[in-house]
## 1
Amino acid sequence: MQISQLLRHKGREVATIDGSESVRTALGVLAEKGIGALVVSADGKRIDGIVSERDVARGLHEHGAGLLAEPVSSVMTAQVHTCTPQASVHDLAKTMTDHRVRHVPVVEDDVLIGIVSIGDVVKARLDELEEERKQLVDYIQTV
């Protein structure tokens, strides 16, 4: 399965935040939307970084509560792993595992068009396995 198929099912909405917004604002958006990461982008199209709950937790441990007033750019991960819509779910799962990331923005022609979480990848893989199981059962029943 390709990432483009996965995005067709889950949608292409991506929650973004400007790097100058406060970490407190980022936490509010994460909580409001029930998500684990925001793409940091000044224009909603180009990726400046990504900020996750994990980034904030580590920042709080290191800098204390004063971090909440700091800009998102102070805790974001600037080196973002991305993928294209043509990438396979299998390859993306490997990338996520190898680099220990849970959220990967999807880009086409250097423009943000979606985001895939590890949960999306697991669900897609489970759906594939269920389809294979059904096909095997059908095959066995017809023989």
## 2
Amino acid sequence: MLFSYKAITKSGEERLGNIDAVNEDVAISSLQRRDLVIVSIRSADKIPIFERDITLLSRVSNKDIVILSRQIATLFEAQVSALRSFKLLAAESENRTLSRKISEVGDDLQSGMSISQALNKHPSVFSPFYVNMVRSGEESGKLSETFSYLADYMERTYELTSKVRGALAYPAFVLSIFVIIMILLMTKVVPKLADVLTGTGQELPVYTKIIIGISDFLVNYGLFLFVLLIIGGVFLWQYTKTGVISFSKFKIKLPLFGELFRKIYLARISDNMYTMLSSGIPMIKSIEISASIVGNDVYKNILLDAANSIKTGNTMSGALVGYREIPAIMIQMIKVGEETGQLANILQKLAKFYKREVDTAIETLISLIEPILMVLLGLGVGIVLAAVLIPIYNIAGGIN
């Protein structure tokens, strides 16, 4: 059972957090063993909803984890103990959710857990990749270097993700403006002009009737359509979260964007594998962890199949042969890395190569999408206005 508590340390600092325990008495005993003076404690299920943290408003971003990793590495290099480091960072963090999680990690360290075990209790913040990297650092005795590797890796990931989001934000913004303009035209402008046209009693062109019909539908049933779209969007979002492979295939086969997504996944796989192999994590474990965080079920299944093939004695390059989603150049370079004993370095070069490919693909997409969207926007608005204004012009010409 999960309990939320408020306590005070011996130094007088206030501490908020959660603790798993069989019952409240066990939770209290556990907190007292940590030298905490309990102010209040209650089951998390009984906390009123308006008192609970709203995760969406206080979520932990990749940028927060990058900063945290860099700070931990710096403190470890300065010979600050793990417990003291997490206590300091919990007090300094501006993100309430992250501060609470770090505080709980500190409490778990104080109770005797290892850092990786404590981090593993918070999968919403620390991914399996992150936890396994820390575990590897604990086993090798190079925790400060491990957190530096993590910070570098997450900075690269954050930079790549930011570029992709930036590339997708522009067309999304233009399309949103287009939809808003069309809705305003159809619901505010077209109905008034339609009254003028129908009032003349003249026969209207087919295309004008179609536009007026769409306008009437939006005016009378637009609210229902909006509600249906929201419901459909929620179902689609839930559908994608279940990891249905058909959507993953669709994503990498999209016109224009499919090639970009493929390169993103290849860059992510290469970078993940390089970082983990450099930290001493075994090959099969590295592949399985990469599969869990790659973000696409097609590549996830490829990696899991490859891991199973390697368990039977196959090489990584041999396990990846036959998959159209894995380029031949990537397989050949991995094969060279295996033959020379420089697989980690080869994967690093592949990660850099595909990152450059992503940058180039983004620049190409932006240069193509911008004029296409402008033309579509102009055509859409022009067709609607022409369908309504041409009959008005004809009526005016007939009167003259």
## 3
Amino acid sequence: MNLAVGRLTLLVGGLVCGAALLTAGAASAEQQAIKGIVSGAMIQKVGFRAMIQKQAIMYNLAGYARNIPDGTVSISLQGDKNRIDKVLDAIRAGTKKSSQDNKVSVTDDALDPSLKTFKVVQWTSTTRNITNPYDLVFQLRPADDEISKKDASAAWNTIAESTLKGDDLAKFMKHLDADD
């Protein structure tokens, strides 16, 4: 009898462990890391990287967006695969000020479990006359939820407000007041 109970316990324990491994595997299968290059007629000096960061904030994705001297934008995105796909669709579609139908060439990248930020590297603003470069850094939310576009924009404004200094901050705030 003890042998039968031992075997049953081992079998149930093995099933539970196996199910936990399958669940963990399924969760990690949904996670993705990509890097890529975006090209389009107008994707620099038009708020394009800020749009990408707002998308990353909305979908709680890590990575970066960086202007390249050849006129392209280098991107990295890490997180839920479906959310990354939504951001890539938004990048391709562009914004009112940027070109639309942008080309995005991506390759898979290694997942970095320690990466918990999305950074716009050396952000400046032509419309606000902000020429000093700033790294705008979004810290991933502990709750891996999606937020609205409006909430993502508000979060982005908070990041900019806490990063910019002196006259640049004043220019940014004046531009915000003009938007209201």
## 4
Amino acid sequence: MKNLFFRGLMSLFLSGFLFLQAQTPPKGLGVGDKIPDALWTKTLQIVNQPQKTMTLEEDKDKLILLDFWGTWCSSCLLNFPKMEALEQKYKDHLKVIAVTYQQREEVEKFFRTDHGRKYNKVLSIIEDEYFRELFPHYGVPYIVWLKNGKVLNMTDAAQVSEETVSEIIKGDKSSLQTVIRVGRERPLMLSENFDLERDAQLLAYNFFAKGRIRAAIYGSYFRRENGVVYGRQITNATLMDIYKTVVREILTAKGQVFTVKQVVNQVKTPLDIDFPPEESRENDLKWYSIETIVPVSEAESLYENMLSLVNNNSDYWATIEYRPARCLVLKRTSRKDKIAAKGQETREDFFKPPFQYRNVGLGALISILNSNNKITDLPVLNETGYEGKVDMDFSEQHDLKTLRSDLARYDLALKEVTRTLPFLVITDKR
């Protein structure tokens, strides 16, 4: 992205809860706008119902919540039970409808999976273009509240509760806060008054905030020019996730491997910087957001700058320390190639039937062994030197002894050794 830098360095550290509506939203209906009459009679494609289509005409007098979601969105799925319970409690006054742009085949396939079956009673509109045009947004879950033929509000999912629904049904003053999703095209919190094309060049930019930003989606964004990453934005993440992302990039640039098993959390209250996704709603004040932009000519300093920004402006200190550590090393035990892929089909089913890898790299196996402690709590390194695609079959039972037996069939072995590895060490500031 050209001409994207302001002469000077802007560094912000904000503590506490942030509510942001700084950026101009995409065109569409706004709060208070009348709903088009055509909406009530439009034929909508749906799943998880005996019929394939529906209209909203019979529910037009209720409070309607359009719950935009995607099969890939864990936060959306965690939100479904709450929405279902509210609809049951206020069934005469409330209608909840999930909405996704995804195609029927994809959505129905998801609801047939072991994970998806937990939610296969959810009424969802599919193949949506109509509502997305009326209510454009950048991320999900995203909730649109419709009442009395008008757009009542647009919020994040966390604001949907028995209290907020009851307020509206009873006609009380609503405590909802409108959320207008912020896009990622502009640096976080940079005023719309700053014209990126015509104003002074933005040479560098730093932003670091504690507390969930309701208007920002969860996730990460890269700023690139000619393939060079010169900016990185991470929004609504745990501080641990930010540290791990930044350190992984620093070490990757050095040709070194970093896994989640190379983290030492010595913080007095570890859950202040690292907590599971299912506890996200209880930890709004513990989320962090960060953005750093550097001149393209200084791109190699990006992640070191991000690490310094967090260290200098938080209650914690993170370092990369090299320590001798026990680990498992994957090696070949012969020169005979027993793993070369034989076809073009791609499959990565290590933990589920048919327990096969087809036409994937050995890195897939290393990655899954390092992403959890189900088989080993030791870091796993790939020292096979094998760069081709592989075909492998695994046993249904998953433990280290069984895996070693599986690997032996392919003249591969996992050997325990000691290596000096880089570790991310996080401590409280003293």
